[in-house]
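// run 5 | inverse folding | seed 20
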């Protein structure tokens, strides 16, 4: 990206060549370049993507918590059946 900018490419072109950014982001950068408000657009995008990352991480944390509870419950059921099996076999049933 840096070398593309040094060669005179626009910020949008340099970012697009890297193939790291979504089209929506590139359109916003292109519009910001045309009107001369790149710093403001970048600040807004930084805030948006920070909130998006936070939301996704919270969702992931909730799903992982739910998964751990499921594994814990499955383990407890398994342990109960194992203990009951040992107990019943000791009784001769």
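// decoded
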């Amino acid at each position: 990206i840096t070398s593309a900018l040094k060669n005179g490419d626009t910020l949008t072109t340099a970012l697009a060549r890297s193939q790291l950014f979504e089209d929506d982001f590139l359109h916003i950068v292109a519009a910001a370049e045309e009107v001369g408000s790149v710093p403001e657009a970048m600040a807004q995008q930084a805030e948006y993507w920070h909130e998006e990352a936070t939301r996704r991480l919270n969702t992931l944390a909730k799903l992982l918590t739910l998964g751990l509870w499921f594994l814990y419950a499955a383990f407890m059921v398994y342990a109960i059946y194992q203990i009951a099996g040992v107990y019943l076999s000791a009784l001769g049933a």
